[in-house]
Amino acid sequence: MTMRVAVLDDWQRIAEGSADWSPLKARAEVVFFHEAFASEDEAAAKLADFDVLMTMRERTAFPSSLVARLPRLKLFAMTGQRGSTLDLAGMMKRGITVSFTSGSDTGNGTAELALGLMMAAARNIVQGDAAIRAGRFQEGVAAGPELAGKTLGLIGLGRIGQNMARFGKAIGMEILAWSPNLTEARAAEGGATFCAKDELLARADVVSLHIVLSDRTRGLLGARELGLMKSGAILINTSRGPLVDEAALIAALQAGGIIAALDVYDREPLPSDHPLRRLPNTVLTPHLGYGTSQTFAEFYRQGIENVLAFLDGAPIRLLKPAQ
User: Fold this and answer.
1) Inter-CA distances, 225 with 117, 163, 197, 205, 229, Å
2) Is 246 among the residues known to form the active site?
3) Which one of 75, 92, 227, 300 is at 20 to 30 Å from 9 when CA atoms are compared?
4) Residues with Cβ within 8 Å of residue 97, at least 6 apart in sequence
5) Is 268 a catalytic residue?
């Protein structure tokens, strides 16, 4: 029986051009999926006849209920090394091999996108582009503020947060930072001044989220926290949608108090009828943060290597069961 490989989550249709697939296509049937599955039932029906799944991080969820409906699954080749929506432990218990892709995650791509979102939101770049394309010029495009001298508040000061701190400093912004485990000394090392979360929200002209989603951080910013932000302040989220209470965020945006520049959402792809799409005080991108051409080239190159090694009976980059 021919080995069947499903390449999932290729929403941008760039997988085939990102790496050399010919060695794998010579040994297996490779099918690319360009659309998100509408439901778990659809995913189960379309993937039941595949032996190998190559998935893109943070896209299709694989809970235990779905994995149980994939009788031929032998290798789950994921990108990155973690996935909160993937029942990796359950897969391994069922005897499914799980491989990952490695590489140095500098956080450059996500930080650069956060910088771009900040610039676009502050200077009304999206509105200016729309005006030009509609045959207008400056009509209807508000003047935005200079960011030099303003305050950038970073929630999270890891690799991405530190990159964003450097960008903000280069512009001439004051940098504040907070996270649950951050100290004054570590903040200073990362190029920021530590302050309490509420103070950061009240002082910052721009708040940018760079923190891992967990049970402790889910809903980190709710109605109370959003209410602390300055009128006209910009909230940037390139981390995870559920860090911010979505209903509270929509209410704050509808009230016109803040501006949101978002790359991530509670549900992805963002539904076509979602209210965020209709709010004028938003800048929205479709989860582009980590997805640079360099990142995809590395993801797919290593993913192909992982599948070929598995077919050779000597799998590599194996995820180990949690201790």
Assistant:
1) 21, 25, 9, 14, 7
2) no
3) 92
4) 74, 75, 76, 310, 315, 318
5) yes
Is residue 123 part of the annotated active site? The answer reads no
Please identify which of the residues 57, 59, 210, 287 carries the catalytic annotation.
287
Q: Is the peptide bond before 315 cis (omega within 30 degrees of 0)?
A: no
pLDDT in tens, 71-96: 999 999 999 887 888 999 999 999 99
Q: Are residues 178 and 190 in contact, defined by beta-carbon separation less than 8 angstroms? A: no
State phi, psi for 285 to the nearest 5 degrees: -125, 155
DSSP assignment of 132-145 equals HHTT-SSTT-PPPP
Report d(CA 52, CA 14) in Å as an integer.
19
List of domains in the chain:
4-104+292-311 (3.40.50.720), 108-284 (3.40.50.720)
> Annotated catalytic residue: which of 268, 274, 301, 317?
268
Q: Quick: pLDDT tens for 116-165.
A: 999 999 999 999 999 999 999 999 999 999 999 999 999 999 999 999 99
